[in-house]
Amino acid sequence: MKHLFGLLTIGVVLGLAGCLNQNEHNPWMNDKEILDLIQQMTLEEKIGQMQQINGFGGEIPEHLKQDVIDGKIGSILNEVNVKTINEIQRIALEESRLGIPVIIGRDVIHGFKTVFPIPLGQAATWNPEVVKAGARVAAKEAWSSGVNWTFAPMIDISRDARWGRIAESCGEDPYLTSVMGVAMVEGFQGDDLSADGSILACAKHFAGYGAAEGGRDYNTTLIPEGELRNIYLKSFQAVEEAGAGSFMSGFNDLNGVPASGNEFLLRKVLRNEWNFEGFVVSDWASITEMITHGYVADEKNAAEKAIKAGVDMEMATTSYKTYLQELIDEGRIDEELLDEAVYRILKIKFDLGLFNNPYVKEEDQNQFALPEYLETAKEAAIQSMVLLKNEKSILPLTNEVGKVALIGPMANQKYEQLGTWIFDGDSDLSITPLEALQLELGDNKVLFAEGLSYTRSKDKAGFAQAVTAAKQADVVVMCLGEESILSGEAHCRASLDLPGAQNELIEEVAKAGKPIVLVVMAGRPLAIGAVSKHVDAVLYSFHPGTMGGPALAELLLGVSNPSGKLPVTFPKSAGQIPIYYNHKNTGRPVDKASWTCIDDIPLNTFQTSLGNTSHYLDLGFDPLYPFGFGLSYTTFEYKDLKIETPKVKLDDDVIASVTLENTGNFIGEEVVQLYVRDLVGSVTRPVKELKAFQRVQLKPGESKKITFKINTSELAFFNNEMKEVTEPGEFHLWIGGSSNADLQASFIIE
Ligand code: BGC
C-alpha cells in the first residue's frame, strides 16, 4: 500500500506525541513528514532502511523483489542497469507497504563511462572549477544509469606513496584536499540534490585511513588527537560544511578503536561538534570486520558498537538485520537510535526527490560520453599533467618536429590509462597517446615500439625494436608507468621504482642519443630520480583517463601549456617515507651544510652526533620533487612580496601581495601558492602550511599583482587541550610557485 503523507490516522496522532519527545533529544529531527513516516514503520522496516545490499546484475531475483516489497532493503550498491533500477523503484514505491524508495549507490570515483584523471591527478590541477566540472559530468552519466549516490569524494590525507589508495586521494595537504573535496561535492550534488543529474556525495573514509602503517592497505592507524584534528579531519569538516549528504566510516583501527565502531569520530566529532545531519554508511563489511580486528567477539557485538557509534547503514554484511531487533529486546540499545538513523536516511531520500520521482525517463537514460563531456575530460587531463623537467626547453615539440619514436608499454593501452576505480569506465572511448599523436602528426611520422608489452614485463625481446625506432627518430617520447591494477584499494607497493624492466628500457633507448621525453602514467608518485637523468623532459601524467592521449598530444605539441602542480611530495625512494612538506622542524633541522653524505665518511670515524642533523646518510633530506612543484613552457618570476598588514589583531585579515610576471615566451597559467609558518606555538607547528592559492593566466611579458586575504582564524590549530586557537606571535609567509617558495615576509598577530 502506498503511504499518503499527512494522512491523519490515529497512528499518526500517536506518532506525533512520540515525535515531540524525539524532538526534545534531537532538535534536528523536525521534519513532520519524515517523523510521520517513521511512526508508521515496523521495527523490521526500520532495520530494512539501514541495510544496503550488493547488486545482482540484470534480472531481479524473486527473493529480492519480495525483500523490497517487505521494506527490507534501504539501499542497493553496484546495480547500474537503469531498466532494472527503475523496476526496483517501482516495486518499492508501488508494492511496498509504505512506498519508500531505494537509494542506489555506486563507486563513481573519477568518472562513470567518461573517465577523468584519477583524483590524485585531478588534485594536481589545483583547479576546483575543473574538478567540479568533472564531478558534474560523472554525476550526470551515473544518474542517467539510475545511480543516486556515489561513494566519493575520497578525501583521506595520503602521505605515503606506497599506499595504493593514494591514487584516489587528493594527496597530502589538508587545505588542497579540502578545496578539491568541496569541488567534488558541489559537482556531484549540484545546487539541488533533487534535480536531474544530481547524485548524493559520500565523504570517505572517516577517518584517518590514509595513515595506514607502512602504506599497507587496511593497516592500523595511530594518530594523536591533535594531529587527527589538525591534519586528517580538516577535509572532512570542509565537505561537511559544504553539504556532503553522507559519510562512510573507514576500515581502519584508529588508535585502537575501529573507525566503524568509533564513537569519538562518529558521534562526538561528526554529529555533536559538526552537527552533521546526513547519514553514515559503513564501508564494505567494516562492521563485522571489527570481529577480526579483535574489538568485538561476534556480529551481535559488532552491530551494537556500530549503531551506538553512529553508523546508520550497513554495507554488504547483515549484522544489523540479524541482531538489531534482539539488541533492542534485550535492552542493550534503544529503539531511538534506530529512529535517528532511519530519519537521516529518509531525509536524504526526500532531499534526492526519490519519493516523488525515483525514475530515469526513457529519453534521459544512458547519456554517456557526450562531446562536451569528453572535452571536459580532456581539459582536466591537460591541467592534471605536471611538467617536472624540461631541459634545454626540449618541449614543446613543434609541428616541424620530424619523426617521433613513441616507445613504452603505456603508449597504447586504452584500459590501463584509465586508472583505478573505473567499474563503469568504457575503455573503448579511450584515446591513447599513440592514436592521438598519429592523428596530429600523421601515421608515418610516429614510429611506435612498445619495448615491453606491459610495465611489469622483464622480457627484453622488444628492446631492439625500440632502440631502432629511437635511432630513426628526431625525438623520443617514452610512455612508462604502472598499469591501473598496481594502485588502488589493496594494491600497495613496497618499492616506488618503475616496475619490470622499464629502467633498463630507458637506459637502452638513451644510448641512441636522441632527446627523450618521459611520460609517466601511474597511480602514485614513482621514484624516477635515477631514470630522469637519462631523459631531457618529464611529464607526469598520473592515470589521465579517457582523453589522456589527446591531452598529452596537446601538451607535447604546445597547443596547451602544462600548469599542473604536485599535490604530494615525490620521494627519492620509499625509504624516505613518510615525507611531506608540512612537517615539524625538529630540534636539529637539516640544511645542506649539515648533511653528512655516506660517501664522505672516513673509515674509523669517531662516533659523534654533534653538528649532525635530521637526515639520511644515503638520501639526504630533500625530496625528489617538492609539494606544489610543476613547470611551465614559460617562466614566471615572483617579486615585490609585500604584507600590507604587518601587525594584525585576532580576527583581522592578513593581506599579502606579490607581483607575478610571465618572463618567458608562452602564454601560461601559474598556480600562485601562499604558505605560512607560525614560529612559536603552544604545540609545535609545521614548517610551512598551505593557506591559499590562485590560478593566474599571463601572456608573455605580462605581469600582475596578486593579492591574498587570509583571516587570522584560518591560522588556528588544535592545541593540547583540543581547543582550536589562533595564537598571537610572529608568522612567516611565503608566496611562490611551490612549497619551496623562497620569497618570504613576516607579520605579527598581536
Ligand atoms: C572501499 C570503499 C568503496 C566500497 C564499495 C570498499 O572496499 O573501501 O571505498 O566505496 O568498497 O565499493
UniProtKB/TrEMBL annotation:
Return the EC number: 3.2.1.21
Task: Give the record's GO biological process terms.
Answer: glucan catabolic process
> Is Calcium one of the keywords?
no
Q: Which SMART domains match?
A: Fn3_like (SM01217)
Q: What are the UniProt keywords, alphabetically? A: Glycosidase, Hydrolase, Signal
- Top EC class, one word: hydrolase
InterPro entries cross-referenced by the UniProt entry: Cellulose_Degrad_GH3 (IPR051915), Fn3-like (IPR026891), GH (IPR017853), Glyco_hydro_3_AS (IPR019800), Glyco_hydro_3_C (IPR002772), Glyco_hydro_3_C_sf (IPR036881), Glyco_hydro_3_N (IPR001764), Glyco_hydro_3_N_sf (IPR036962)
Q: According to its UniProt record, which reaction does this protein catalyse?
A: Hydrolysis of terminal, non-reducing beta-D-glucosyl residues with release of beta-D-glucose
Write down the Gene3D superfamilies for this protein, in alphabetical order. Answer: Glycoside hydrolase family 3 C-terminal domain, Glycoside hydrolase, family 3, N-terminal domain, Immunoglobulins
Q: Does the keyword Signal apply?
A: yes
Q: Residue limits of the Fibronectin type III-like domain? A: 670-739
Q: Which Pfam families match?
A: Fn3-like, Glyco_hydro_3, Glyco_hydro_3_C
Q: Which PANTHER family match?
A: LYSOSOMAL BETA GLUCOSIDASE, PERIPLASMIC BETA-GLUCOSIDASE-RELATED
> What family classification does the UniProt entry report for this protein?
Belongs to the glycosyl hydrolase 3 family.
What is the recorded name of this protein? beta-glucosidase
Which species does this protein come from? Draconibacterium aestuarii
